[in-house]
Amino acid sequence: MKLTILGCYAATPRTFTNPTSQVLEIKNHLFLIDCGEGTQVQLRKYKVKFSRINHIFISHLHGDHFFGLPGLISTFRLLGRDKELHIYGPKGIKQAITLFLKLGDSWTNYPLIFHELESKESELVFEDEKVTVRTVPLIHRVYTNGFFFEEKEAPRTLDIAIARKFGVDKSQFNNIKKGMDGVDASGKTIPNKKLTLDPPEPKSYAFCSDTVYNEAILPIIKDVTVLYHESTFLDSEEHLCEKTKHSTSKQAAQIAKKANASLLILGHYSTRYKSIELFKKEAKEVFPVVELADDGKVFDFGN
Ligand SMILES: [Zn+2]
What we know:
Zn(2+) 2 binds at residues 64-65, 210, 268. Zn(2+) 1 binds at residues 60, 62, 140, 210. The chain is of the alpha/beta class. The protein is 24% helix and 28% strand. It contains 11 helices and 18 strands. A 7-stranded mixed sheet has the order 6-5-4-3-2-1-18. The protein binds zinc ion (ZN).
């Protein structure tokens, strides 16, 4: 699982800071999460292959989270894309994007499939044999969802050396891989667990931006491996959270702590602050394992 931050600042794009967009690589998928203005430039800059993006998840329809989408869709067309592109986002996104395409007489020559969201409950929006994606309903000034990406538990793997040691014939290997027990030369049963290795612990990633402090998301993201939670403000601006429906870094840390996350990544910083180091300092007073997102930063969580 690998996360590339393309942009992680609030509001307007600036010379050295970009609005929200990130790429999550998980079980051979490249999921694009949010698509602020300039996302396609950032994708080029950090050498993300356009052709590997087949699913785009949009949290909400504020410009700093989706104004890059019409441009990216249009570029896909110019690059001669023919594969389906799936877009998951709030109801209205289809109307917004199709109006752009219609006025410019630039319909895509590839299938553009919208999955419009309007539920206030968490729902399963994507599933294949290795990964699921669920929405995380957030509380913001407009209808907003975070997304919870979760690997499925992989099957146990056969330990050939151990199987040989037990005298299990290789004709049984396929059955053992399917979960059956083995039998040695004397006819004694060897339990499957003794002949196979534990699969790696499934990893998960929760993207939570934009939102006020909201404990209702805890059951959905419980025990998450990596939590990205917005921290627009420092503690000194906490009074702005209720009006703007954003969080402080300390509140993000409280969510990480209560969700039993292994790692918290902060982002969506207000551009009023000169340095982002203080976000980490304040969050660490509440939760020990904190990283700062920054444009171009890559987090590699291994296989
Ligand atoms: Zn917003």
